[in-house]
Amino acid sequence: MKGRAVLVYLAFAIALPAAPLAQAQDYPNRLIKLMHGFPPGGNVDVVARLLANEMAKGLGQSIVVEGKPGQAGSLAAETFAGTEPDGYTLLLVTGAHPATGAVYKKLKYRPVDDFAWISTAAFYPFVVCVRKDSELKTLSDLLQAARAKPGGITSGTAGLGSIAHMTTELISSLGGVQLLPVPYRGEAPAMTGLLSGDVNFVVATSTLAVPHLRSGEVRGIAITGKTRWKDFPEIPTIAESGLPEFEVISWSGIAAPANTPKAIVDRLHAEIQRAIAVPDVHGRLESFGAEVRGTTPAEMRALVERQLALWTKVARQSSIQLD
Prior knowledge:
Shape: globular
Number of strands: 10
CATH class of the largest domain: Alpha Beta
Low-confidence stretches: none
Oligomer: single chain
Helix content: 40-55%
Strand content: 15-25%
Radius of gyration: 22 Å
CATH architecture of the largest domain: 3-Layer(aba) Sandwich
Structural class: alpha/beta
C-alpha cells in the first residue's frame, strides 16, 4: 500500500504542472471580459471597445467590455486583482493606475505585483483646455491668475487621484501656485463642467479633447508632453510655457491577474500587437492623438513602476493621501 501511495503522489505531482499548460493550449474557449474603471463615453471606454472588437476576431471568442467606475479606476482594479488568473478576465489599464496607487493608502491590491502586465496599446498627451470665451489665453495667464487669487482657479478632474488631478497638482507644485482641483465622476463629466462654466480649465485626454477643440467649444492652451501634438501644432507644450521640466504622458494597455500562465500572456501579447497594427484600429487610435505603440510585458511593468515613483513623490510634496 505504501508503494502504491507513493506512485499516486508522484502521478499527482507530475500532473500539476501540466494543468496550466493544457489550460493555456486550450485558450480561449469561452467569452472573455475586458474590465475598466471609468464611465462610458470617456477615453478609456472608447479604447477598450476598440481593442476588444479587434482582439475578439483574432482570438475567436467574444470580448465583452465591462465598466466599473469609481476612485479613478481603483474599484475596477480591486475587483479585477482577485479574479482567476486564467486569461478570461482582463483589465484595460491606464496611466491613472500608478497615480491611484500613489495616493490611496487603503488599496486592497498591490499596484505592480498583483498584475500580469501584457502590453501597452497607445501613448497620448493631455491637453489643458479652457472655454472658448475664457480670459485665460495661455498657461502663463493661468499661472498669473492663480498667483493673484490662490485657490481661485479651478480644475475639473476625473476624480481624486486621477491623472488630471495629479497633473493639476504637479502644475501647482512646479508653478509655485495654488490651483483648486474639483473632482467629477469621470473626465466626460469634467468636460461638461468646463463647458457649463463651473470650472476654469480641465486637463483632458487627447481623445476627449479632439471633438471639442475641432468644434471650437474649447481652446487648448498647453500640451503636457515634451513635444507639440501633431494634430494641433499651434498649442505649445507646458515645458515651452514656463515649466521647462514638465512632462506627463498617459497610456492605455492591457493586463491580466498575477500568475496568469506565461503561454496565455504570450498569446494575448501577440494579439494586442496584431490588433494595434490593423489599419482601422491604428488609424482610429491616432485620430485620438495617440502614438500607437506596444511594449513587452517587462517594459510595461517598468513603466508602471516609474510612474508610481513619480506620483508618489508628487503626492508626498502636495500632502495628498486618500482613503
